[in-house]
Amino acid sequence: MRSVEIQSLLKEIKELLTNKKILDFLGYKKFFSIKLENGYLNIFLPYFFFFDDKPITGKRSKFSMVISRLISNKLIENIEQIDFDRIVCFNIGVFKLIVKLFGNGNIILLDENNKGIAHLRKYKVLYEERKTNIEKEIEEIKKFEKRVVDFLSENLFLGNFYAKEILKNCKVDENLKCSSLSSYEINSIKNEINKLFNSKKFYLVIKDSKASFSINYEDENGICYENESLNETIKKVFEIVTLPRKKKKRIEVEKKEDIEKQIKDLEEITRIIEENKEIIEDVIKNVNVYKNEGGIEMEEGKDYFFLKFGDNRIKLFFNKTVEENINFYKQTLENLKAKISVKEVKEDAWYKKFRYFVSSDNFLVVIGTNSYKNEILVKKFASRDDIVMKANIKGSPIAIIKTNGKEVPKTTLEEAALIVACYSKAWLLKFDYCDVFYVKPEQLIKEGWMSTGSFGIVGEKKFIRNVKLELCLGIDIESGKVLVSHNRLVKPNFKYIFYIYPGNKKIEEIEEYIKSIIGKNINIDRKMLASSIPFGVAEIYRTIE
Q1: Angle between helix 159-170 and helix 3-17 axes, rounded to 10 deg
Q2: What are phi and psi of 116, to 5 degrees?
Q3: Is the peptide bond between 244 and the residue preceding it cis, with omega within 30 degrees of 0?
Q4: How far apart are CA 415 and CA 326, in angstroms?
C-alpha cells in the first residue's frame, strides 16, 4: 500500500475499529487476523490490511499466541498513520501495535514505555521521523531544483504512480524543474492533490494476471473496475491474489469479456452520434428547451444529459460540441482497447533468468549478463516492436526494452542506457562517460563467423551520448535487501541512499562503508550486493538531500 492509500483506508474503516474489543490474534508468516467483537481486521504483509466478516487465517504461531495473550479483551482506543508513512499504529490499552507495510513487512508490540516486547521480525530502527506538511511543502516548491515529478514522489511521499497522474491531470510536464512552475501550475497541483486525498473513486486493477488497486486514477496499462469503497476493493484484490492460478485466469477472462462488451456498446454509441450530428447539435444548443419539454433526461448540477435513440440511452455533455462528444467516446474506446490488449505474463517469467528492471514508465527492460545470454535474449525474446540497446564499446551487455507496441519515453531510454553503460567494460576501464546506441531487432544480423553474443548492425544507430557511469544504491535496513539502479527507481523506495561509480573498492569495503553509515549490526544481503555492483568493484559515497 502506498501512503495515500493507507490514509484513505483509515478514513473509511476507523469507526469500525475504534473502541472495539479484541477477542483474539491469529496468524503466521504474512497472514494475520485480529478478531474483534464486530469482525476481523486482516493483515496481509507487506501489502495491505482490510476489515471483513471473516478471517484470512485460522492458524496460530508462537508470535501470534504471545500477542493474543497480551492484547485480548482490550479495546482499540485509537488508530493512526505514522508521519504519512506506510506504518500504522494501533493504541490498545497501554500497548501499541505497530504494523509496517514495506520491505518484508513487520508487526511489533510496544509497552507503555515504547519498548519492544514482541516482534515478527528483528528490527534495528522502529521508524524514522519524516514530518511532512504537504501544504507548506507545496508553498515552498519553487525553492527546489529537482523535477516536479520527483518532488511529489519523494518530498510529499505520493509515489511515482500518483505523482505522474496528478501532473497529467494538471497538464504539467513531469520533467519541469520545480523552480520553473507558475503560480497557476502550483495551484492546479494543489487542487489535484486535494482531489486525490478526498476521492471516493477506487479502482480494482487487473494487469498481467495480477490484481492491485488505486485511488482516483485508472491504471492505463490494466483493466480497471471502479468501486465506492477502498476496503471492498482491497478485499476483492486479496481474493484474486490468493486464488489458485486456474481460477485467476478464469476471472481475467470474465473481465476481458466485460471490457469487450463495453467496447461494442461504445462503438454503437459513437456510430449513432456521428449519424445524428444535426439533431444532437440542436439539442445541445437548446438544452433548456428540451429539458422543459421532457425530451431529455437531466440531473441537477450535472454537466451532461441523456438522449434516447431507439433502445440506446446516450450520455452527452452539453458543455461540449458534437465533435467533442464524439472525440470523448473515441478516446474512451481507445483506452479500453489498450487495456484489453494487455498480455498475460507467465508466472515463471522468462526475464527472471536475466538482469531486469521495470522502468519508471512501466516498461520491462531485460539485460544479458554474459555473451551466451546476450545471444538467447536477442534470438528468443526480442519482438519486432522492441528496442535493442548496447554500449558503444567492446564488452557490453545487450538490453531489450519490451514495448508491447507503445512509444518508449525518453526517461525509459535514459534508465536503460545507464544500466547498459554501467555493466559494460567501460566500468572496468574506469570511464566517466560512455555512449550507448539502440536499434530495432530487424537491424541485427548474425553471420557464421561471429562469436556468441555478437551481432552485426544494418542501418542507422540512434545514440544516447555521454551517459554518466554512476548508479544509485538503496538499502532496506529491515530486510537487508539491496537495489542498484537509476536514482528515479531507487530514491522513492529506500530511506538509505548511496551512489557508486567506477573504482577499486571491493564488495567487503563497500559493505563496510555502508554499515559505517546505517549501523554496524545491520545485516546486508551480501549475495545481492555482490551481484548488483558492476564487476564487483566501485567507489561509493552518500549525499544528504
Answers
A1: 100
A2: -70, 125
A3: no
A4: 38
Nearest to 126 by CA among 71, 77, 89, 80: 89
Closest by CA position to 130, among listed 189, 86, 78, 161: 86
Please report the sign of the dihedral spanned by the C-alpha atoms of residue 337, residue 340, residue 344, residue 345. positive
Residue 9 DSSP class: H
In this structure, which long-range contacts are made by residues 30-34, counting pairs with CB atoms below 8 Å and at least 24 apart in sequence?
30/105, 31/56, 31/57, 31/59, 32/56, 32/57, 32/64, 32/107, 33/57, 33/58
| Residue 395 to residue 157: CA distance in whole angstroms | 39
Question: DSSP readout, 81-100?
Answer: EGGGSSEEEEEETTEEEEEE
- Residue in the structure block whose three cell numbers are 434516447: 308
Say if residues 405 and 378 touch (Cβ distance below 8 Å): no
Three cell numbers, residue 385: 516492436
Determine contact, residues 167/173, Cβ cutoff 8 Å: yes
299 Cβ contact partners less than 8 Å away, ≥ 6 residues apart: none
The CA dihedral of 423, 427, 431, 437, to the nearest 10 degrees, is: -20
pLDDT tens track, the chain, 545 positions = 888 999 999 999 999 999 999 999 999 889 999 999 999 999 999 999 999 999 998 889 999 999 999 999 999 999 999 988 899 999 999 999 999 998 889 999 999 999 999 999 988 777 766 656 777 888 889 889 999 999 998 888 888 889 998 999 899 999 999 999 999 999 999 999 998 988 888 888 766 556 678 887 776 666 677 788 999 999 988 887 776 554 555 556 666 777 788 888 899 999 999 999 998 998 888 887 887 777 788 877 778 888 888 888 898 988 899 999 999 999 888 877 776 654 443 334 688 889 999 999 999 999 999 998 999 999 889 988 999 999 999 999 999 999 988 999 999 999 999 999 999 999 999 999 999 999 999 999 888 788 888 899 999 999 999 999 999 999 888 888 899 999 999 988 888 899 999 999 999 999 999 999 888 888 888 899 999 999 999 999 986 54
Distance CA 30, CA 105 (A): 8
Beta pairing, strands 76-81 & 482-485: unpaired
Query: Which uninterrupted H or E stretch holds 425?
Result: helix 425-428
Q: Return the C-alpha cell found at 243.
A: 486464488
Number of residues assigned to the chain: 545
Nearest to 99 by CA among 72, 124, 79: 79
Eight-class DSSP state of 434: E
Q: Alpha-carbon distance 479 to 496, whole Å?
A: 13
Give the DSSP letter string of 141-209.
GGG--SBHHHIIIIIS--HHHHHHHHHHHHT--TTSBGGG--HHHHHHHHHHHHHHHT---EEEEEETT
Q: What are phi and psi of 19, to 5 degrees?
A: 65, 25
Q: Amino acid identity of 43?
A: I
Residue type, 144: F
Q: Where are the beta strands (DSSP E) in 216-332?
A: 223-227, 297-298, 304-309, 312-317
Written as one letter, the residue type at 30 is K
